[in-house]
Design goal:
The protein is mostly helical and about 525 residues long. It has a domain of about 200 residues. The chain is globular, with a radius of gyration of 27 Å.
Length: about 525
């Protein structure tokens, strides 16, 4: 009786602890999602990067004498004429500019709050974003013939920055002087333009500067440099467009094939289960239609997920920041992309690694586990088919829901610390470190937890499709970005289905690796220097 009472007290204490941790986890998730809502979607920044590439290629379309090559370039950038491209690009920049101005105004009202130091840093970051986007938007206004509008756009930067003039603010003054009547030339204008502008924007600004200075030789050199830059931009655009185009096309064909298979050869379809017919004997049911045996209850699932997420939050939000501050790492990280990449790889690995001992401790009473749990079957080549096929099947689905999500969220809901490293760093080492995080560490740890443990465990309480959908949603939620929830839920559902049918974690890990690697390659192509 005393032993039973002791066990009850122990369980009550554990339940109380898990309840408190659950409430704290929910509070942290809500707070983090709210913060992500105030940040522009990274997809918006990626769209602007692609816009910059298109602008650079546009000038080559007008100069191309070979009709076939010209048609190819035209199809690569747009179906409209170059003037339409300038108008569309300007519209994209103005939308992002308005979103950043609104965020800047909100932060300006909160700067006197309790967390004023953090708000001040965000405010400075937003101010820089507004200045940089205004600088580029003005050059696009010039191309559309709105010179007075461009001068107004550049003048607004001075009003926002005030006395604390940034390099972007100085460049907007230089641009305003170049397009004023009469022209005003500033000292060190060329150096300032080269430091703050790139691609098509730099060429337009330097062309105007050299014309004002009557430097014909520099104009000729600039035209030659522009042609080399155009060739590079074309290659990058081909890479960026080929990933969704090829992957999406193969994915659509794959889905059409699966539809035909379901209609005419239903029993051989991967979507076919024993519940689809009453007459099929057990002998004819394939092994991949047998679900997992789950010896534990909901309390064990709750324990594993809450303890892992609590450990993740504790390490990423308290332990590691404290260590980095004591070591003085944070002060050196802003310009060192290798250090930034290490501060992604190491914290991620350290924060998710507690999952392994937590699983071992929570499932110790049920060992040896029933057959099929956490299975890695390297010798069976089917995991390659499932992983690659699942990747192509996921591409069109995720692309479609991503477009819908972006429209619904209107450009808000996501901040990603990896983007500057991938798009601005010129060193291969930071990118290699990031690829190790995205394509090796993340697929292993996330698939082991969400597909290896959570999905099979939920099949004890939910139909298989319900378990797949729930585990996919929780997988997306764990990324703590509003903009990611719908696309990553769909991706998580596809990975869950692939694991359910293959019964091999290598298949969903391969799919995860391919997805992250494709996104990684597209980002490098978009922003590579």
């Amino acid at each position: 009786m005393d032993s039973q009472s002791l066990n009850d007290k122990s369980w009550n204490a554990k339940s109380l602890l898990l309840s408190v941790l659950s409430l704290l986890s929910v509070f942290f998730i809500i707070l983090t999602l709210q913060v992500s809502w105030n940040n522009p979607q990274e997809q918006t920044k990626l769209d602007l990067l692609q816009t910059d590439l298109i602008l650079q290629v546009t000038q080559s379309v007008n100069q191309e004498k070979d009709h076939f090559a010209g048609d190819f370039l035209q199809s690569l950038i747009s179906d409209g004429d170059p003037q339409d491209i300038y108008t569309q690009s300007l519209r994209s920049y103005q939308e992002v500019l308005q979103a950043n101005k609104s965020a800047f105004e909100r932060l300006s009202q909160d700067v006197s709050g309790a967390d004023s130091q953090s708000i001040s840093k965000q405010l400075q970051k937003k101010q820089n974003a507004v200045s940089e986007i205004s600088m580029r938007a003005g050059l696009l206004q010039i191309q559309t013939g709105d010179i007075q509008g461009a001068i107004t756009t550049w003048s607004n930067v001075k009003e926002i920055e005030g006395e604390s003039m940034t390099s972007y603010g100085l460049t907007t003054q230089i641009l305003q002087g170049l397009w004023s009547e009469p022209t005003i030339l500033f000292p060190n204008a060329e150096t300032q333009i080269r430091n703050t502008l790139d691609g098509w924007y730099r060429q337009v600004a330097l062309t105007k500067l050299y014309q004002a200075q009557q430097r014909s030789e520099e104009l000729s050199n600039l035209a030659q440099q522009a042609q080399i830059a155009v060739e590079t931009a074309i290659k990058r655009l081909i890479i960026v467009n080929s990933i969704p185009l090829i992957g999406g096309s193969i994915g659509v064909l794959l889905w059409l094939g699966l539809l035909v298979q379901w209609i005419f050869f239903r029993k051989s379809s991967p979507f076919y289960t024993k519940s689809d017919t009453k007459s099929e004997s057990a002998a004819n049911q394939t092994s991949n239609q047998i679900n997992w045996q789950v010896p534990w209850g909901m309390e064990t699932i709750w324990e594993v997920m809450v303890l892992w997420f609590s450990a993740f939050c504790l390490i990423t939000q308290l332990v590691l920041p404290l260590i980095f501050e004591l070591l003085g790492i944070e002060s050196r990280v802003s310009e060192d992309y290798t250090l930034q990449a290490l501060l992604v790889l190491i914290p991620y690995t350290v924060s998710v690694m507690p999952m392994l001992p937590i699983l071992r401790f929570s499932l110790a009473a049920y060992r040896p586990l029933p057959e099929g749990w956490f299975r890695f079957k390297l010798t069976s080549p089917q995991w390659l088919v499932w992983g690659i096929g699942g990747y192509f099947a996921a591409v069109p689905l995720v692309l479609i829901v991503s477009v819908i999500s972006q429209k619904f969220l209107q450009g808000q809901g996501g901040g990603n610390p990896l983007l500057p490293i991938l798009t601005e760093s010129q060193n291969i080492l930071p990118k290699l470190l990031l690829w190790s995080t995205l394509a090796i560490a993340a697929p292993f740890f996330e698939e082991y937890l969400f597909r290896g443990f959570l999905l099979p465990s939920l099949t004890k309480f939910l139909p298989v499709w319900g378990a797949i959908a729930t585990s996919g949603f929780l997988f997306a939620l764990a990324h703590l970005n509003i903009a990611d929830i719908i696309p990553l839920s769909v991706l998580g559902i596809v990975m869950g289905f692939v694991y359910w049918r293959s019964k091999n974690l290598l298949s969903s890990m391969l799919l995860h690796c391919l997805w992250n690697s494709g996104s990684f390659l597209a980002l490098i192509a978009l922003g590579g220097k």
